[in-house]
Amino acid sequence: METENLSSTSDILIVGFSDLPHLQALLFSVFLVLYLLILSGNLLIVATVSGNSQLHTPMYFFVAMLSLIDITYTSVVLPPMLTHFFLKDLHVSLTKCLLQMTLFVAVAAAEVVLLTVMAYDRYVAICNPLHYSSIMNLAVCMRLATGSWLIGLMVALPFTVAVYGFSYCGSHTINHFFCDMTALMKITCTSTHMIEIFIYAFGASTTLGSFILIIISYVNIISSILKIKAKGGSGKAFSTCASHLTVVVVFYASLCATYVRPKSAMGDSKISSLTYIIISPLCNPIIYSLKNTDFKNALRKKNNKS
Predict the structure, then answer these.
(1) 52 with 295: CB under 8 angstroms?
(2) What is the CATH topology of the domain spanning 8-305?
(3) How many CA atoms lie within 13 A of 171 on its CB side?
(4) What is the pTM (predicted TM-score) of this model?
């Protein structure tokens, strides 16, 4: 079988949902509505936090950063996918394919890190409240947010370099709706055993390491809350963590549904990938708007003024 190295001018054929021709109009409508809901919900979070001085705190600063991340990685995938519903030619160059993969991995990794930062913010607020304002000042918050993006990029680049060096046999067709790394690895002739070990080890160390830090933060938070003797104090303290904890559960559940599966079950991962790409960005604004009293009050004031 003929083997060739893909060059920057080579094309990748993205199948998308072209294998469901009778559902094209319905799928396009559903994904367009979901994308618009994700955009509007997360932009509402950013606008509300930016426009209300009572929300100019570290916690809501990170909530706004989380919404920006959700907007970014959803926009990396869904708009190109929507255009494919109108195009008969679903080819993209390797350069564009790798750029999409890099951006997606980088932003998803940045969200993992940011969720850890948000857990640390709640830990400081509850376990060390007297020094909270000095520890989590604006400069520190900006550095932590910037660091999340930089770590995400550092996680993505090794994957991109590894995939770029693959050799491919015959068809350059991937059965996916975007340039997912696991989909590209399925069409290579190059032995991927070592790179798979690297990818899962590197990815797991970032994701699992962040998850462990979140767990440690919440163990200390719960321990501190249980020591609060004031009537209603423990409930009020934990209510400030409830939204973040719910977001963490939704994010890691969708992440595990997509990537933590036996290799034999990795055949067509389009549905599970949609779960990861859509569910978390769609749920986050709902979680923060429904479960957070300060945010609900800010929305009411904004509606009353309008």
Answers:
(1) no
(2) Rhopdopsin 7-helix transmembrane proteins (1.20.1070)
(3) 7
(4) 0.86
